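Re: [ENG-882] Designed sequences occasionally contain unexpected residues at chain ends

Forwarding the minimal case from QA. Structure tokens:
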């Protein structure tokens, strides 16, 4: 299983016309480390929980090789 070893919220501005000129949307930059392949992966997203599930289920081709199929007991 790949684990998040660092996460930093990043704010970006996006022009909207729903009552405000600029709204701030939180994004996260994260670093995954896989012991299996001894490699780091840097990514960004808005929803960390969903993104980590996507990484660990093999839906991301960039991190698929780093999945540890052995379950921790």
């Amino acid at each position: 299983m790949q684990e998040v070893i660092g996460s930093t919220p990043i704010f970006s501005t996006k022009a909207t016309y729903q009552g405000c000129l600029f709204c701030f949307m939180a994004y996260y930059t994260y670093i995954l480390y896989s012991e299996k392949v001894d490699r780091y992966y840097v990514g960004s997203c808005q929803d960390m929980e969903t993104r980590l599930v996507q990484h660990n289920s093999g839906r991301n081709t960039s991190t698929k090789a780093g999945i540890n199929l052995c379950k921790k007991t």
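QA comment: On inspection the terminal residues look reasonable. The mean pLDDT is 74. Proposing we downgrade this to a documentation issue.
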